[in-house]
Design goal:
It is a single chain. It contains 4 helices and no strands. By secondary structure, the chain is mainly α. The chain has a domain at 25-67. 58% of the residues lie in helices and 0% in strands. The N and C termini lie far apart (43 Å). The longest helix has 14 residues, at 51-64.
């Protein structure tokens, strides 16, 4: 069976989660929303996968001028 070209989210998933998507930068407000949602539902993928911590870290870097 011929392999289909990789596009969209499949391509990003294959490249790994550490790649910068080049989208909108994380803000402290967005990180707070993510943390609040994770705290409201501790069994969610957001809470158990470490995304709220990564969001907070990214927001801190973006507000301090670091990349």
């Amino acid at each position: 069976m011929p392999q289909q070209p990789t596009t969209g989210s499949n391509k990003q998933a294959q490249q790994g989660s550490t790649q910068n998507s080049g989208g909108t930068k994380m803000t402290p407000e967005s990180a707070a929303r993510i943390q609040s949602a994770a705290d409201r539902n501790p069994q969610s993928a957001t809470a158990t996968g470490g995304f709220k911590e990564r969001a907070q870290s990214s927001a801190a870097k973006n507000t301090s001028g670091k990349k």
